[in-house]
Amino acid sequence: MSIGLLLAFAQLAGAQVDLQLEAVTRSYPLSGSLTSELGYGIPIWGSPSTGNTTSRSPWYGYIRPSLKLATAGTYNAGQVSIDLFPLSFIGIKAGVGAWQTTDDYKAFDCTQIQCKGKFNHQFIEAKVGFVAGPLFLLARGKIEDFQQSPLQQNDFIEPTLGMVAEKEGDRVRSATGILGGNINDRWSLAALWSEGTMEKRKGFSRTQMLTVNWKADSVTILLGAGAFESSEKSQGATFAGLLRWEIWPSIELF
User: Residue 225: which pLDDT band, with cuts at 50, 70 and 90?
Assistant: First the structure.
């Protein structure tokens, strides 16, 4: 079957292109980026609709390939992935990506570890979400393998969780949970917990945070405050912010 026939079938099945822009920042360890994501949601059963998560029927399944690009000036990354959700609130995501940094991270001692250079990763994650009245629970488990260019000979930093990886490559196992409640159609409050471990280097990363979330039509704003600690950074207060614009809405429920 040709690609053209596959695309035609996807259009007949109610497939939809989605596009979003997202800006995120974190105070400790200091980081931030601007991300764009382009996806193509293909229903495999049911009839997905758009709108607020609280008003959408969860009874559908989908496949969604996507492309994500991120930049922070001296940090540039790309990722391709595919989602397989037999139910809109239970599924898996797998993908590969790469990033390049051209300057040292201010939050880490780059005289002892590799900060600049070329790196790549592969991952698989399971995601599940439940809603009961105004309450919601989201959970994610993820396994991610990291490698660096063979020209780089030092242990290197994984920037998202802030842990050092073994120079020959390493694996991160992480879990995230979010428990929250909707105040109304626009406002919600949530508690977030996230923890990761580096397999070979025996490192760890842990975040606890309370967030306030506001959503109107295609725009979401999140502000959070909490604590961060890792094997590389002592425990300290951290603040986070997120601004997301859904230019074309996604088939994803969350």
Answer: very high
